[in-house]
Amino acid sequence: MATRVEAIDTHQEHHHVPGLQHQFDDIEQQKEATTIGMWFFLVQEVMFFGGLFMAYLLYRYKYPMAFAAGSNHLDLWLGFANTLVLIASSLTMALAVWSAQTSKKPKVQAGWIVLTMIFGMVFLGVKAVEYNDKYQHHLIPFSRDFKWEPKGEELVAQQQMIERHASEAEKSLYGREQAFGDKVRMFFWIYFAMTGLHALHMVIGIGIMLWLLWTALKGRYSAEFYGPVEICGLYWHFVDIVWIFLFPLLYLLGRHFIAGGGGH
Amino acid sequence: MGQQGLVAEKSINHGDEAHYHGEDHHVMSIPTYLIIFGILVVGTILTWFVAQFDLDEFFIGANTLVALLIAAFKTTCVVLYFMHVRYSGKLVWLCAFGAIIWLLILFAFTMSDYLTRGAVPGTYR
After folding, report:
1. Does residue B61 come out as left (phi exceeding 0), alpha (psi in the -120 to 50 range) or beta?
2. Is A256 exposed, middle or buried (0-12, 13-18, 19+ CB in 10 A)?
3. pLDDT of A10 higher than 80
4. pLDDT given at position A171
5. Chain B residues close to A241, C-beta within 8 Å
6. For residues A228 and A209, what is the distance between their CA atoms, to the nearest angstrom?
7. How far apart are CA A17 and CA B36, in angstroms?
8. What does the pLDDT look like over A226-264, one tens digit per residue?
Protein backbone atom coordinates (compact mmCIF):
# COMPACT_ATOMS: atom_id res chain seq x y z
CA MET A 1 0.00 0.00 0.00
CA ALA A 2 2.71 2.44 1.04
CA THR A 3 4.76 1.73 -2.06
CA ARG A 4 1.75 2.27 -4.28
CA VAL A 5 1.08 5.75 -2.86
CA GLU A 6 4.75 6.57 -3.28
CA ALA A 7 4.72 5.44 -6.89
CA ILE A 8 1.75 7.66 -7.68
CA ASP A 9 3.15 10.60 -5.76
CA THR A 10 6.23 10.73 -7.91
CA HIS A 11 3.93 11.42 -10.82
CA GLN A 12 3.20 15.10 -11.30
CA GLU A 13 -0.43 14.94 -12.39
CA HIS A 14 -1.81 12.62 -9.75
CA HIS A 15 -4.58 15.03 -8.77
CA HIS A 16 -6.05 14.92 -12.23
CA VAL A 17 -5.75 11.43 -13.58
CA PRO A 18 -8.28 11.30 -16.41
CA GLY A 19 -10.97 8.68 -16.09
CA LEU A 20 -10.43 8.06 -12.36
CA GLN A 21 -13.78 7.57 -10.63
CA HIS A 22 -14.13 9.22 -7.23
CA GLN A 23 -14.79 5.98 -5.31
CA PHE A 24 -11.28 4.66 -6.01
CA ASP A 25 -8.13 5.69 -4.20
CA ASP A 26 -6.06 5.71 -7.36
CA ILE A 27 -5.98 4.48 -10.93
CA GLU A 28 -4.23 1.24 -9.94
CA GLN A 29 -7.03 0.30 -7.59
CA GLN A 30 -9.62 1.22 -10.20
CA LYS A 31 -7.91 -0.88 -12.84
CA GLU A 32 -7.66 -3.88 -10.53
CA ALA A 33 -11.33 -3.59 -9.55
CA THR A 34 -12.59 -3.29 -13.14
CA THR A 35 -10.37 -6.13 -14.33
CA ILE A 36 -11.60 -8.45 -11.57
CA GLY A 37 -15.19 -7.44 -12.36
CA MET A 38 -14.69 -8.35 -16.01
CA TRP A 39 -13.12 -11.68 -15.06
CA PHE A 40 -16.11 -12.53 -12.86
CA PHE A 41 -18.30 -11.83 -15.87
CA LEU A 42 -16.12 -14.04 -18.06
CA VAL A 43 -16.30 -16.91 -15.54
CA GLN A 44 -20.09 -16.60 -15.77
CA GLU A 45 -19.75 -16.71 -19.57
CA VAL A 46 -17.68 -19.89 -19.32
CA MET A 47 -20.53 -21.52 -17.40
CA PHE A 48 -23.07 -20.09 -19.86
CA PHE A 49 -21.31 -21.68 -22.84
CA GLY A 50 -20.42 -24.65 -20.63
CA GLY A 51 -24.04 -25.82 -20.60
CA LEU A 52 -23.96 -26.06 -24.40
CA PHE A 53 -20.62 -27.86 -24.38
CA MET A 54 -22.17 -30.28 -21.88
CA ALA A 55 -25.09 -30.94 -24.25
CA TYR A 56 -22.60 -31.46 -27.08
CA LEU A 57 -20.53 -33.89 -25.00
CA LEU A 58 -23.51 -35.99 -24.00
CA TYR A 59 -25.17 -36.26 -27.43
CA ARG A 60 -21.92 -36.84 -29.22
CA TYR A 61 -21.14 -39.60 -26.74
CA LYS A 62 -24.53 -41.18 -27.49
CA TYR A 63 -24.59 -40.77 -31.28
CA PRO A 64 -20.98 -40.48 -32.50
CA MET A 65 -21.68 -41.57 -36.10
CA ALA A 66 -24.60 -39.18 -36.61
CA PHE A 67 -22.49 -36.36 -35.20
CA ALA A 68 -19.60 -37.31 -37.47
CA ALA A 69 -21.89 -37.37 -40.52
CA GLY A 70 -23.38 -33.97 -39.68
CA SER A 71 -19.95 -32.51 -38.98
CA ASN A 72 -18.50 -33.85 -42.22
CA HIS A 73 -21.20 -31.97 -44.09
CA LEU A 74 -19.95 -28.62 -42.72
CA ASP A 75 -17.62 -26.58 -44.89
CA LEU A 76 -14.21 -27.31 -43.37
CA TRP A 77 -12.43 -24.55 -45.28
CA LEU A 78 -14.85 -21.81 -44.26
CA GLY A 79 -14.50 -22.92 -40.64
CA PHE A 80 -10.72 -23.00 -40.96
CA ALA A 81 -10.58 -19.57 -42.60
CA ASN A 82 -12.86 -18.14 -39.93
CA THR A 83 -10.57 -19.49 -37.21
CA LEU A 84 -7.65 -17.60 -38.77
CA VAL A 85 -9.77 -14.45 -39.16
CA LEU A 86 -10.73 -14.57 -35.48
CA ILE A 87 -7.15 -15.15 -34.36
CA ALA A 88 -6.08 -12.17 -36.48
CA SER A 89 -8.80 -10.08 -34.84
CA SER A 90 -7.46 -11.09 -31.44
CA LEU A 91 -4.01 -9.88 -32.48
CA THR A 92 -5.34 -6.51 -33.65
CA MET A 93 -7.37 -6.23 -30.43
CA ALA A 94 -4.26 -6.93 -28.36
CA LEU A 95 -2.48 -4.23 -30.37
CA ALA A 96 -5.35 -1.81 -29.75
CA VAL A 97 -4.80 -2.32 -26.03
CA TRP A 98 -1.07 -1.99 -26.54
CA SER A 99 -1.43 1.27 -28.47
CA ALA A 100 -3.53 2.73 -25.62
CA GLN A 101 -1.07 1.44 -22.99
CA THR A 102 1.78 3.17 -24.80
CA SER A 103 -0.14 6.42 -25.41
CA LYS A 104 -0.21 6.18 -29.17
CA LYS A 105 -2.17 8.84 -31.06
CA PRO A 106 -5.99 8.43 -30.99
CA LYS A 107 -5.98 7.69 -34.72
CA VAL A 108 -3.51 4.83 -34.26
CA GLN A 109 -5.63 3.36 -31.45
CA ALA A 110 -8.74 3.79 -33.61
CA GLY A 111 -6.99 2.08 -36.51
CA TRP A 112 -6.43 -1.13 -34.53
CA ILE A 113 -10.00 -1.02 -33.24
CA VAL A 114 -11.35 -0.61 -36.80
CA LEU A 115 -9.19 -3.52 -38.02
CA THR A 116 -10.59 -5.67 -35.21
CA MET A 117 -14.12 -4.71 -36.22
CA ILE A 118 -13.40 -5.52 -39.87
CA PHE A 119 -12.11 -8.99 -38.98
CA GLY A 120 -15.16 -9.47 -36.78
CA MET A 121 -17.48 -8.54 -39.64
CA VAL A 122 -15.64 -10.82 -42.08
CA PHE A 123 -16.19 -13.64 -39.58
CA LEU A 124 -19.91 -12.89 -39.39
CA GLY A 125 -20.14 -12.64 -43.18
CA VAL A 126 -18.60 -16.09 -43.61
CA LYS A 127 -20.96 -17.39 -40.92
CA ALA A 128 -23.89 -15.97 -42.89
CA VAL A 129 -22.70 -17.79 -46.03
CA GLU A 130 -22.53 -21.02 -44.04
CA TYR A 131 -25.97 -20.58 -42.49
CA ASN A 132 -27.38 -19.88 -45.95
CA ASP A 133 -25.84 -23.10 -47.23
CA LYS A 134 -27.52 -25.03 -44.41
CA TYR A 135 -30.80 -23.36 -45.34
CA GLN A 136 -30.41 -24.34 -49.00
CA HIS A 137 -29.75 -27.94 -47.97
CA HIS A 138 -32.75 -28.12 -45.61
CA LEU A 139 -30.54 -28.50 -42.56
CA ILE A 140 -32.19 -25.93 -40.32
CA PRO A 141 -33.11 -28.12 -37.33
CA PHE A 142 -36.03 -26.01 -36.11
CA SER A 143 -37.65 -25.94 -39.53
CA ARG A 144 -40.27 -28.49 -40.63
CA ASP A 145 -38.28 -28.77 -43.83
CA PHE A 146 -35.37 -30.53 -42.15
CA LYS A 147 -34.14 -33.38 -44.34
CA TRP A 148 -31.05 -35.52 -44.03
CA GLU A 149 -30.72 -37.13 -47.44
CA PRO A 150 -27.08 -37.52 -48.39
CA LYS A 151 -26.54 -38.54 -52.00
CA GLY A 152 -23.78 -40.07 -54.09
CA GLU A 153 -20.34 -40.00 -52.52
CA GLU A 154 -21.55 -38.55 -49.26
CA LEU A 155 -24.04 -41.38 -48.81
CA VAL A 156 -21.39 -44.00 -49.59
CA ALA A 157 -18.97 -42.39 -47.17
CA GLN A 158 -21.64 -42.29 -44.47
CA GLN A 159 -22.58 -45.94 -44.94
CA GLN A 160 -18.95 -47.04 -44.93
CA MET A 161 -18.27 -45.02 -41.82
CA ILE A 162 -21.18 -46.57 -39.92
CA GLU A 163 -20.22 -50.03 -41.13
CA ARG A 164 -16.61 -49.70 -40.00
CA HIS A 165 -16.77 -47.57 -36.90
CA ALA A 166 -20.18 -47.78 -35.25
CA SER A 167 -20.57 -50.01 -32.22
CA GLU A 168 -23.26 -52.67 -32.36
CA ALA A 169 -25.24 -50.74 -29.76
CA GLU A 170 -25.17 -47.63 -31.93
CA LYS A 171 -26.02 -49.52 -35.13
CA SER A 172 -29.13 -50.93 -33.45
CA LEU A 173 -30.21 -47.36 -32.66
CA TYR A 174 -30.28 -46.50 -36.34
CA GLY A 175 -32.51 -49.37 -37.41
CA ARG A 176 -35.61 -47.27 -38.05
CA GLU A 177 -35.72 -45.40 -41.37
CA GLN A 178 -35.53 -41.83 -40.07
CA ALA A 179 -33.56 -42.60 -36.91
CA PHE A 180 -30.17 -41.58 -38.27
CA GLY A 181 -31.50 -38.32 -39.71
CA ASP A 182 -33.08 -37.48 -36.35
CA LYS A 183 -29.73 -37.80 -34.63
CA VAL A 184 -28.03 -35.72 -37.32
CA ARG A 185 -30.74 -33.15 -36.66
CA MET A 186 -29.60 -33.13 -33.02
CA PHE A 187 -26.10 -32.30 -34.23
CA PHE A 188 -27.47 -29.36 -36.20
CA TRP A 189 -29.47 -28.16 -33.18
CA ILE A 190 -26.26 -28.04 -31.20
CA TYR A 191 -24.31 -26.57 -34.13
CA PHE A 192 -26.79 -23.71 -34.51
CA ALA A 193 -27.13 -23.11 -30.77
CA MET A 194 -23.39 -22.95 -30.19
CA THR A 195 -22.36 -21.00 -33.29
CA GLY A 196 -25.47 -18.81 -32.95
CA LEU A 197 -24.66 -17.86 -29.37
CA HIS A 198 -21.07 -17.29 -30.40
CA ALA A 199 -22.14 -15.10 -33.35
CA LEU A 200 -24.41 -13.13 -31.00
CA HIS A 201 -21.36 -12.46 -28.84
CA MET A 202 -19.53 -11.25 -31.93
CA VAL A 203 -22.36 -8.87 -32.82
CA ILE A 204 -22.38 -7.50 -29.26
CA GLY A 205 -18.59 -7.29 -29.41
CA ILE A 206 -18.70 -5.21 -32.58
CA GLY A 207 -21.25 -2.93 -30.91
CA ILE A 208 -18.89 -2.48 -27.96
CA MET A 209 -16.04 -1.79 -30.40
CA LEU A 210 -18.12 0.99 -31.96
CA TRP A 211 -18.38 2.71 -28.58
CA LEU A 212 -14.69 2.08 -27.94
CA LEU A 213 -13.81 3.56 -31.32
CA TRP A 214 -15.86 6.68 -30.57
CA THR A 215 -14.21 7.25 -27.18
CA ALA A 216 -10.74 6.42 -28.51
CA LEU A 217 -11.11 9.00 -31.26
CA LYS A 218 -11.96 11.57 -28.59
CA GLY A 219 -8.53 10.85 -27.15
CA ARG A 220 -9.69 9.37 -23.85
CA TYR A 221 -7.14 6.57 -23.65
CA SER A 222 -3.48 6.82 -22.74
CA ALA A 223 -0.93 5.07 -20.57
CA GLU A 224 -2.54 6.73 -17.56
CA PHE A 225 -6.05 5.50 -18.34
CA TYR A 226 -6.77 2.60 -20.67
CA GLY A 227 -9.01 0.38 -18.51
CA PRO A 228 -11.98 0.32 -20.93
CA VAL A 229 -9.76 -0.79 -23.85
CA GLU A 230 -8.31 -3.57 -21.71
CA ILE A 231 -11.78 -4.70 -20.54
CA CYS A 232 -13.19 -4.77 -24.08
CA GLY A 233 -10.09 -6.70 -25.11
CA LEU A 234 -10.75 -9.35 -22.44
CA TYR A 235 -14.27 -9.83 -23.83
CA TRP A 236 -13.05 -10.08 -27.42
CA HIS A 237 -10.32 -12.62 -26.56
CA PHE A 238 -12.84 -14.70 -24.63
CA VAL A 239 -15.08 -14.92 -27.70
CA ASP A 240 -11.99 -15.98 -29.68
CA ILE A 241 -11.26 -18.74 -27.16
CA VAL A 242 -14.79 -20.13 -27.49
CA TRP A 243 -14.24 -20.44 -31.23
CA ILE A 244 -10.85 -22.11 -30.71
CA PHE A 245 -12.83 -24.97 -29.14
CA LEU A 246 -15.83 -24.81 -31.46
CA PHE A 247 -13.75 -25.24 -34.61
CA PRO A 248 -12.31 -28.71 -33.87
CA LEU A 249 -15.38 -29.90 -31.98
CA LEU A 250 -17.88 -28.95 -34.69
CA TYR A 251 -15.95 -29.06 -37.98
CA LEU A 252 -13.31 -31.72 -37.43
CA LEU A 253 -14.90 -34.32 -35.21
CA GLY A 254 -15.48 -36.92 -37.92
CA ARG A 255 -12.92 -36.09 -40.59
CA HIS A 256 -10.61 -38.96 -39.64
CA PHE A 257 -13.41 -41.47 -40.32
CA ILE A 258 -13.56 -40.49 -44.00
CA ALA A 259 -9.96 -39.41 -44.61
CA GLY A 260 -7.98 -41.64 -46.96
CA GLY A 261 -10.86 -44.08 -47.38
CA GLY A 262 -10.16 -45.86 -44.10
CA GLY A 263 -6.45 -46.62 -44.57
CA HIS A 264 -4.03 -45.55 -41.89
CA MET B 1 -1.81 -5.74 -44.89
CA GLY B 2 -1.82 -5.54 -41.11
CA GLN B 3 1.84 -6.47 -41.02
CA GLN B 4 3.02 -3.45 -43.00
CA GLY B 5 1.09 -1.08 -40.74
CA LEU B 6 2.67 -2.80 -37.80
CA VAL B 7 6.21 -2.34 -38.99
CA ALA B 8 5.64 1.30 -39.90
CA GLU B 9 4.07 2.06 -36.57
CA LYS B 10 6.83 0.36 -34.67
CA SER B 11 9.53 2.42 -36.32
CA ILE B 12 7.70 5.72 -35.75
CA ASN B 13 7.09 5.07 -32.08
CA HIS B 14 10.33 3.34 -31.39
CA GLY B 15 11.43 3.69 -27.80
CA ASP B 16 8.09 4.95 -26.56
CA GLU B 17 7.23 1.77 -24.74
CA ALA B 18 8.61 2.69 -21.34
CA HIS B 19 6.84 6.06 -21.33
CA TYR B 20 4.50 5.72 -18.36
CA HIS B 21 3.55 2.81 -16.22
CA GLY B 22 4.11 1.70 -12.68
CA GLU B 23 5.60 -1.71 -12.03
CA ASP B 24 2.10 -3.22 -12.08
CA HIS B 25 1.63 -2.33 -15.74
CA HIS B 26 3.65 -4.70 -17.78
CA VAL B 27 3.55 -3.61 -21.40
CA MET B 28 4.34 -6.45 -23.73
CA SER B 29 6.35 -5.91 -26.85
CA ILE B 30 5.06 -6.18 -30.42
CA PRO B 31 7.31 -9.20 -31.17
CA THR B 32 5.74 -11.06 -28.22
CA TYR B 33 2.27 -10.48 -29.68
CA LEU B 34 3.44 -11.57 -33.13
CA ILE B 35 5.02 -14.76 -31.76
CA ILE B 36 1.78 -15.63 -29.95
CA PHE B 37 -0.15 -14.94 -33.14
CA GLY B 38 2.23 -17.22 -35.03
CA ILE B 39 1.76 -19.99 -32.45
CA LEU B 40 -2.02 -19.67 -32.77
CA VAL B 41 -1.86 -19.93 -36.57
CA VAL B 42 0.45 -22.95 -36.43
CA GLY B 43 -1.84 -24.52 -33.82
CA THR B 44 -4.83 -24.04 -36.11
CA ILE B 45 -3.04 -25.65 -39.06
CA LEU B 46 -1.88 -28.50 -36.81
CA THR B 47 -5.46 -29.05 -35.62
CA TRP B 48 -6.60 -29.45 -39.22
CA PHE B 49 -3.62 -31.62 -40.15
CA VAL B 50 -4.03 -34.08 -37.29
CA ALA B 51 -7.74 -34.46 -38.07
CA GLN B 52 -6.83 -36.09 -41.41
CA PHE B 53 -5.39 -39.16 -39.69
CA ASP B 54 -7.33 -41.86 -37.93
CA LEU B 55 -5.76 -41.93 -34.47
CA ASP B 56 -8.59 -44.07 -33.14
CA GLU B 57 -6.32 -47.02 -33.93
CA PHE B 58 -4.48 -46.14 -30.74
CA PHE B 59 -7.57 -45.68 -28.61
CA ILE B 60 -11.12 -44.46 -29.19
CA GLY B 61 -11.31 -40.69 -28.98
CA ALA B 62 -7.60 -40.10 -29.60
CA ASN B 63 -8.39 -37.61 -32.39
CA THR B 64 -10.64 -35.57 -30.13
CA LEU B 65 -8.11 -35.70 -27.31
CA VAL B 66 -5.34 -34.34 -29.55
CA ALA B 67 -7.65 -31.62 -30.92
CA LEU B 68 -8.61 -30.59 -27.40
CA LEU B 69 -5.00 -30.55 -26.21
CA ILE B 70 -4.04 -28.22 -29.06
CA ALA B 71 -7.09 -26.02 -28.32
CA ALA B 72 -6.13 -25.94 -24.62
CA PHE B 73 -2.59 -24.90 -25.53
CA LYS B 74 -3.89 -22.14 -27.84
CA THR B 75 -6.23 -20.97 -25.09
CA THR B 76 -3.36 -20.86 -22.61
CA CYS B 77 -1.42 -18.61 -25.02
CA VAL B 78 -4.39 -16.26 -25.48
CA VAL B 79 -5.14 -16.12 -21.75
CA LEU B 80 -1.54 -15.61 -20.60
CA TYR B 81 -0.45 -13.09 -23.23
CA PHE B 82 -3.36 -11.50 -25.10
CA MET B 83 -5.38 -11.29 -21.88
CA HIS B 84 -2.30 -10.37 -19.84
CA VAL B 85 -2.98 -12.93 -17.11
CA ARG B 86 0.71 -13.73 -16.89
CA TYR B 87 1.26 -10.26 -15.44
CA SER B 88 -2.00 -10.03 -13.49
CA GLY B 89 -2.74 -10.37 -9.80
CA LYS B 90 -3.61 -13.54 -7.92
CA LEU B 91 -7.35 -12.85 -8.00
CA VAL B 92 -7.33 -12.93 -11.80
CA TRP B 93 -5.47 -16.26 -11.73
CA LEU B 94 -8.05 -17.53 -9.28
CA CYS B 95 -10.86 -16.52 -11.67
CA ALA B 96 -9.23 -18.23 -14.63
CA PHE B 97 -8.62 -21.47 -12.74
CA GLY B 98 -12.02 -21.29 -11.04
CA ALA B 99 -13.71 -21.17 -14.43
CA ILE B 100 -11.88 -24.28 -15.64
CA ILE B 101 -12.50 -26.23 -12.45
CA TRP B 102 -16.21 -25.40 -12.31
CA LEU B 103 -16.55 -26.37 -15.95
CA LEU B 104 -14.90 -29.72 -15.24
CA ILE B 105 -17.25 -30.26 -12.29
CA LEU B 106 -20.19 -29.64 -14.63
CA PHE B 107 -18.89 -32.20 -17.14
CA ALA B 108 -17.74 -34.78 -14.60
CA PHE B 109 -20.87 -34.86 -12.45
CA THR B 110 -23.27 -34.87 -15.40
CA MET B 111 -21.38 -37.62 -17.22
CA SER B 112 -21.02 -39.67 -14.04
CA ASP B 113 -24.82 -39.78 -14.06
CA TYR B 114 -25.31 -40.63 -17.74
CA LEU B 115 -22.44 -43.10 -17.99
CA THR B 116 -23.70 -45.18 -15.09
CA ARG B 117 -27.41 -45.28 -15.92
CA GLY B 118 -28.70 -48.81 -15.98
CA ALA B 119 -25.47 -50.08 -14.41
CA VAL B 120 -27.51 -51.45 -11.54
CA PRO B 121 -29.95 -54.05 -12.95
CA GLY B 122 -33.52 -52.85 -13.04
CA THR B 123 -32.74 -49.14 -12.72
CA TYR B 124 -33.85 -46.50 -15.20
CA ARG B 125 -31.77 -46.18 -18.34
Report:
1. left
2. buried
3. no
4. 85
5. 75, 78-79
6. 11
7. 33
8. 999 999 999 999 999 999 999 999 999 988 888 754 433
